[in-house]
Amino acid sequence: MKRRVNVIGVGMTKFAKPGASDDYHVMAKAAGLAAMKDAGIQYSDVEQAFCGYVYGDSTCGQRAVYELGLTGIPVVNVNNNCSTGSSALFLARQAIEGGLAECVIALGFEKMERGALGAKFNDRENPMSQHAQVMMDTQGFNQAPPAAQMFGGAGREYRWKYGTKRETFGKIAEKARQHAANNPYALFNQVLSLEEIMASDEVFDPLTRFQCCPPTCGAGAAILCSDEFAKKHGIANPVYIAAQAMTTDFASSFDEKSMIKMVGYDMTRSAADSVYEQAGIGPQDINVVELHDCFTANELLTYEGLGLCREGGAEKFIWDGDNTYGGKFVTNPSGGLLSKGHPLGATGLAQCAELVWQLRGQAEKRQVEGARVALQHNLGLGGACVVTLYRND
Amino acid sequence: MAELRFDDRVAIVTGAGGGLGRQHALTLAARGCKVVVNDLGGSAHGDGKSSSAADKVVDEIRAMGGEAVANYDSVENGESIVQTALDSFGTVDIVVNNAGILRDVSFAKMSKQDWDLVLKVHLEGSMSVTHAAWPIMREKGYGRIIMTTSAAGLYGNFGQANYCAAKLGLAGLANCLAEEGRSKNIHVNTIAPIAASRLTETIMPPNLLENLKPEAVSPLVAWLCHEKCEETKGIFEVGAGFISKLRWERSQGNSFPLGKAFSVDDVARRWGKITDFTDAEHPSNVNESFSPILDNINNPSLGGNEFIDLDVASKESLELESSYDENDLSLYALSVGAARDPLDKDELKFVYELGGNFQALPTYGVMPQIGAMLKAAKEGALALPGMNFGFDRLLHGEQYTEIKRPLPPHAKLKHTFKFKKALDKDPNAVVTFAITSTDENGNEVAYNEMTSFVKDAGGWGGERGDSGEINVPPAREPDAVIEEKTDANQTLLYRLCGDWNPLHADPAFARAFGYDKPILHGLCTFGYAGRHVIKAFSNNDGRYFKSIKVRFAKTVFPGETLETRMWKESDNRIIFETWVKERNEVVLKNAAIELFSEIPAEAPVPEQVSAEEVSAPQVEQAVTPDDVFAAVATYIKQKPELVDQTGTSFQFEFSNPDQQFFIDLKNAPGAAGPGTIDKPDVTLALDSEHLATVFGGDLAAVQKLFFGGELKISGNVMASNKLTVLQDMDPKLAEQARDKRVADGGGSQAVAVPVESQEPTMADVFSAIGHFIADNPDLIEKAATSFQFAFSNPDQDFYIDLKNAPGTAGAGQLDKADVTLELDSKHAPTLFGGDLAAVQKLFFGGDLKIGGNVMASNKLTVLQDMDPKLVEQARDKRLASGQPDTATAQPKKQKAPQAEKVLPELAEKLSAIGGQGGVLQIKVRSPDSAWFIDLSASSPGIVSGEKDAAAVITLDDSKLADLIAGKVALSTLYQKGDMRVDGDLALVRKLEQIL
Fold first, then answer.
1. Which site from A172, A329, B206, B733 is most exposed, i.e. has the minimal number of CB atoms within 10 Å?
2. How many CA atoms lie within 13 A of A331 on its CB side?
3. In 3-state terms, chain B is what percent helix, strand and coil (to 5)?
């Protein structure tokens, strides 16, 4: 019998550019303490910790958690590329849901270097070699950051398929900046005009610089618990996880020689379908979404992958303003990866924090009025995708 | 989490007879706290007195099983209230200062009594109770104190001057007490509550009051009073379930440079910055408050503007290197007029290094650093720290040059450029750099100060500086005068010393700057003047020269006569001016030269230079790409297992100079060397200068090259990582290869050998071959092969067609050759010399690259019987006919633009999609051309030119040809980025229908 899993505390640091942040364990401590304070619990209440990060030697998770306390609890280090944070959340949810623990913490952090992502271990098979081969076969290798080539290439493929305007992608970045202007945790608080976005350096057509998420440092945390634990601690009506699914690559990622498929469209689609089925609701019931906008092209694809609009309908969806306040859904009220920043390990937990605040009505200027159902989408190439549905009844 | 309890704690709550105070008391008591319920029982305005209010609350507490006593004193009598606590419960742990009254009245109408009364109850009352409890709390090392402020005090409210002042006064009191109590575990916090109470019932509508229950404030008070709460000095807004913390926010502000007056205008100008809360800070104590002020004191900004950043300039420095030798010294001396009389021994010593008394003209001390700077500028690499302007703004204004001892006849120098000062001569600037030149042993050789006038770079409000005249000559007639005429071509000589500025050589350039002709270098005049002073005052011995300082006043034209007027101020100091005699204008002024009394000793040289080191070759031969790949080949031989491990073949395309190398770690036994490999797995294209990085074993450095676009990888990109198998290769292998090459007498690079006309040219060779083929038609049958030759140095194409009868040979390209041979022109004799072994050596040595059917290249041996005399005959014939060497002069064929040819093909098909959509622009690159198609026309054609278009596609000429020939799909071109689409992509896709 699966138990209900509650998110009783969330916390995150203000995201910062590389070189301007504290060290990872200091950031993780701040996020962890904030989440515990938010939950109103002591560290001694925490029974297990799931720590996500991509860049760092082994057991950084312990080093980070030891800042919160030395209680000898199990600490698991999680590494799943850009979906690392939500992968930690996934494990934490399983622990509570399966009755293995009453209260656990999912903690994500990242201290990134400047510049585009690159490989660190070059004396062995590259984990993304199959993905890279799809790209080699469809568009070759260019002088641009590899991730930008992959998602930008998916953007090209989409454009070709539907005749999408280049500005449509820019429009997403414009919206991200507008949302982030109200988020004190975001890296970029400055609004940018569509003209400025389109005029920024071209990274990989159709992506310009302001359409790519920046390397970022930061941490996020969430405290998950069972109903019994919540009751015992007098926590009434907490936000809870109504459904969650993780997917990895299907054959279509490589077989179809499609950039859209290679960057994980089917992972998104399948995880979303599963979540809707588990929860017994559909996309129309959702109020607010945090989705993986590492590049504008991926946000556009994800609208369709999550069923927020029909396939091929993203351009209209965007220009109709259905992705922001006053429209059908508010996507990335936090500013998303594009503007809030993308510290790989922390991103999934920062998304969780934003949605919990939204569902509690604590999102201040970003508050989506009457938000009751929230959807989180976090995707990493390599690959993994976690989709989570939160509710607050 | 266990319930937060207050068992055994004693609290005083003032004004606890009703409203907020009552609720605080009840909340604390319900959690086990013993409470002194203080209330005077008066009205909200401070009138009257009654014990009933406090008693009622005490009864309530007792009824729920709590402990409480009543106190009816005014809060002005804090001692009595605390005494009640001591008498009843023996101590006091918590003081909640809640009592207050209102006497709202506009400031204009406010009486002194209104003011006094409100301040007395709120401010003095809170002080009084707290003051009485303070020693007890300090003694026991524990205390929790609450002050009650108000939004009215924090933000201001009409008609409450007295109340606002008292309330914010409480926040100030709390701030101080929090600091004083910190070490004694006494926490002092302030709340700004809003709740329905006796104070608010008259000013708020009932429906609002209903929602502002005191119950929504007391939990915060209780938490702040709990022993677990670490908060102190906090200010909280609380009401109707909302609780939040306040703090001070401070803008980044503006720091006016310290020590320099700023005016009201400056404040007004910077108001935006002063009040901008972007990136605001939140100081929480006096130290943090003071820190930016301290910063301003300790690090006053030096100012500057977009052209000159004084903060950067003052912190950073630039290092450049240069060297000079006897030749440079002699050239310099000549170019500043030395040794006009070549028989004058006293002058010859400055220009003739073999004369035994060679010495440097000392003003040369200015040259090495300025030469290094000009060289860097010419290469676009000059970055004087903090100087963000182009050289075109710069005018050399003043120069000070000091040499520490006579300049050595040759030296390798390091110059450190440091900013010295900048004067703001709004709108211009005057910048001085100090340059220290040291030799290889670290001895300072020369010190220069270069002061330049920078046009339109001033105006940052910096120091203007005085324009004080220094080195002003005395009123008397000069003690010595020397005049000397410059040559009309003086600048052309002087510029060879390193000042390449076209202003001094190019007449058109000079005219553009408003001069009739090129002007003489200021530093050339400077050299003349230096010589004059040395001649007049140190017996023409440069070794006594110490320093020179001049201001450049006017321009000199080559050919004019320079007259230096000198005044001896002391034995060691000569003031001078240099004039142009013809125009009677002073060109160098405020000038002086200092002399040493004795010739300074030579610079110390570090000891213990071993004989071995001295005899070591001065210049080490560089490791060339040939050496590196030879080393790789050796390494592969040593470790044949690399082939199994790697299974990859690499092609390298170097540029600057262009050269190709390969590493084959796919086909056993593995190989490496110059040339190309068939179907490499990976191709790496890069500049030759990055060779060392690629083989340096530092993968991060290689990745940097890659992401920086300096290394282009095609083919299987991932496989390029396999190159790391070579990282353990001993770098000495490359050096050994180099040594071997040097020993063999090999040059470091192929050198282009000009073909002399008397020698047989390549055209002669092929002409001879043509004759030989004509004479031997059976060769066609024997060889049945066509050969294409691509020679380099110089680039020239020739062919031999032994496939198609009757067989030909000559300059140019064949349509389709069976074999392609690439080689340096100098190897042509070997190729046709008939020595197959020598040809094979060329091939295996990589000097001959064979493409196509390699085996077929052997067929060339059919020519080995050709009489070499045929070549000579061809040459003789050519020389006799007086024909120029046309073959070698013939440039390589340019690729013809194809757009023009292929687009009509497209036009024919366009009618199929006519009448659908707008104008499509086709921009073709390399070579460029522009075309458009109006798809709205029923029968659209292709027109040359540009037009307002709904969609624009941009692609290379060759790609366009491929596209129309059907070799590549439109979508593929787009996906690969070979075709860019702007505007309406759907319109472009219409082309797919017809392609």
1. B206
2. 32
3. 40, 25, 40
Higher pLDDT, B14 or B676: B14
The β-bridge partners of A244 are A388
Structure tokens, A135? 């790209």
Q: Mean of the pLDDT values across residues B182-200? A: 84
Q: What CATH architecture is B762-881? A: 2-Layer Sandwich (3.30)
Of residues B1 and B191, more confidently modeled: B191
Length, in residues, of chain A:
393
A189 CA: distance to closest CA in chain B (Å): 9
Q: Is the pLDDT of residue B965 over 90?
A: no
Judged by CB atoms closer than 8 Å, whether chains meet at A145 and B707 is answered as: yes
Shortest CB distance from B971 goes to which of A141, A160, A166? Answer: A160
Integer-rounded Cα Rg, in Å, for chain A is: 19
pLDDT at B113: 93
CATH architecture of B314-595: Roll (3.10)
Instruction: Show me where the domains of chain B are located.
Output: 10-244, 256-299, 314-595, 625-744, 762-881, 898-993
All residues at 6 or more sequence positions from B860 whose CB lies less than 8 Å from its CB, including other chains? B783, B787, B800, B831, B839
Confidence of residue B854 (pLDDT cuts 50, 70, 90): low
* Residue B892 pLDDT: 40
Predicted confidence band at B757 (pLDDT cuts at 50, 70, 90)?
very low
Is residue B880 over pLDDT 90? no
3-state secondary structure of A186: coil
Encoded tokens for B689: 């200068």
CA B545, CA B552: separation in Å to the nearest integer? 20
- In the DSSP assignment, the letter for residue B340 is S
**B898-993 CATH:** 3.30.1050.10
Q: Which residue has the tokens 């007027």?
A: B565
CATH number 3.40.47.10 is the correct assignment for the domain at A3-113+212-389: yes
Which residues in B lie closer than 8 A to residue A204 (C-beta atoms)?
977
> Residue type for B644, please?
D
Q: Mean pLDDT, chain B, as a whole number?
A: 85
- The ipTM, to two decimals, is 0.84
Amino acid at A117: L
Over residues B6-24, the pLDDT tens digits come to 999 999 999 999 889 999 9
pLDDT recorded at residue B751: 36
Q: Which residues of chain A have pLDDT under 50?
A: none
DSSP, residue by residue, A6-37: EEEEEEEPPPB-TTSS--HHHHHHHHHHHHHH
The answer to whether B280 and B251 are in contact (CB under 8 A) is yes
Q: Where are the domains of chain A?
A: 3-113+212-389
Question: B625-744 sits in which CATH class?
Answer: alpha beta
What band does B964 get if pLDDT is binned at 50, 70 and 90? confident
Place of tokens 């059976």: B778
**Percent of chain B with pLDDT strictly greater than 70:** 90
Task: Report yes or no: A132 at the B interface, CB cutoff 8 Å.
Answer: yes
Closest CB to B977 among A122, A133, A205:
A205
Nearest to B962 by CA among B906, B892, B894, B921: B906
- pTM of this structure: 0.45
pLDDT of B416: 94
Q: How confident is the model at residue B845 (pLDDT cuts 50, 70, 90)?
A: low
Residues B507, B512, B516, B518: is their CA dihedral positive or negative?
negative
Give the integer Cα–Cα distance in Å for B956 and B899: 9
Q: What is the distance of C-alpha B655 from the center of its chain?
A: 26
A129:B984 CB<8 A: no
Q: What sections of B708-861 are H helices per DSSP?
A: 732-743, 762-775, 778-783, 828-832, 836-844
Residue B33 and residue B9 in contact, taking contact as beta carbons nearer than 8 Å: yes
CATH class of segment(s) B10-244: alpha beta
Instruction: Inform me whether the C-beta atom of residue A73 falls under 8 Å from chain B C-beta atoms.
Output: no
